[in-house]
Amino acid sequence: MAGHARYFAVKRSGWVLAKRLVATDNGVMRINFTKMHGLGNDFVVLDETQQLIGLTPAQIRFLADRHFGVHGLGNDFVVLDETQQLIGLTPAQIRFLADRHFGVGADQVLSVRAPTSADVDFAYVIHNADGETVEHCGNGARCFVRYVRSKGLTDKRTIRVSVAKGQIELTEGDDGQVRVDMGEPVFEPAEVPFDTESLTAEPCGDWHAWTLDASLHGAPDSARMGTAVWPAEMSLGVLSMGNPHAVQVVGDVDTAPIDLWGPWVERHPRFPNRVNAGFMQIVSRDHIKLRVYERGAGETLACGTGACAAVVTGIRWGLLNETVSVDTRGGTLTVAWAGLGQPVWMTGPATAVFEGAIDVPDA
């Protein structure tokens, strides 16, 4: 998927072995395999004692890829069915599941739960790879609707689900693309939350930008200040898409040092709950390239809420049109926003890659 998902049953015991099932989307090939590790050096084991499977090099690479379980453009997820009973995983157990060497491997762990009110079909709970619960995940939402439909939990094409800060609507089309009503963006700094004390908003388009002094708060030594590697300041669009985002424009996302800038922005003290740091390259008024350093997960191959936040920022700064193609490292999303008071709409694929069961160590 522009969201990939792994569907898992969880066994509460001490093993670190996961026996899983992999299937291509068209059902042509189905492979039983076991994932094992020795001190974190992990392996996929295939039983070919009765018959050679005959995998191609491309299929071997697919099995070894650490980003394709249930995924949305490479932003990958473990999905748990908690509609009948809550599993009650601890943050440590969530971290185990998300570990790409010792567990299953995922950017986030998604829980499908029973509805909490009569006006929704399901509840949707998201945990980052670090074990923390977060408010929203757009790529995960696309995987969510694919999961509940493929598992027979609903036959509706359009469902409403509750998230931490409200409700969202998800629709799976005949072409497999999933359209998500991501809700209205929130611009009030206190609601992001973002501390603006002593900062001055700089007008930009019909909105503004916030400039952070990049020489403070854990920045590298002064010899690197004011360079392409580390600028003297960073100008950000700050907003919430149900979760906090800080977006900046860069000349080239492929060469921008996201590994340095991302963690600095994510953990800046002006964001008390941390923030997702987006880096947007404007290709044209209808096309951007994007990389996102996600809060609690690091850089991911795609970020749905990050794509929405980037497009909204670009529109308000007068740089983009109403509908924009967003190229991420995992694939392309389409994001549309008609302006203030309107919801953001995101469309993209979702792909189920494998399912199975795993033994989870006691916390």
Keywords:
40% strand; Diaminopimelate Epimerase, Chain A, domain 1; six-stranded mixed sheet; single chain; 2 domains; 363 residues; 17-stranded mixed sheet; mainly beta
Describe the model:
- With 363 residues, the chain is mainly beta.
- The chain folds into 2 domains: 2-183 and 351-360, Diaminopimelate Epimerase, Chain A, domain 1, CATH 3.10.310; 189-342, Roll (Diaminopimelate Epimerase, Chain A, domain 1), CATH 3.10.310.10.
- Helix content is 14%, strand content 40%.
- It has helices at 57-64, 91-98, 138-150, 258-266, 304-316; strands at residues 2-12, 18-23, 30-38, 41-45, 70-73, 75-82, 108-113, 122-128, 133-134, 158-163, 166-172, 178-181, 202-204, 207-213, 233-240, 244-249, 276-284, 287-294, 298-300, 323-328, 331-337, 344-348, 351-360.
- The chain has a 17-stranded mixed beta sheet that branches. Strands 1, 2, 3, 4, 5 and 23 form a 6-stranded mixed beta sheet that branches.
- The longest helix has 13 residues, at 138-150.
- The protein is globular, with a radius of gyration of 21 Å.
- The two termini are 31 Å apart.
- The model is unreliable at 11-28 and 66-72 (pLDDT under 50).
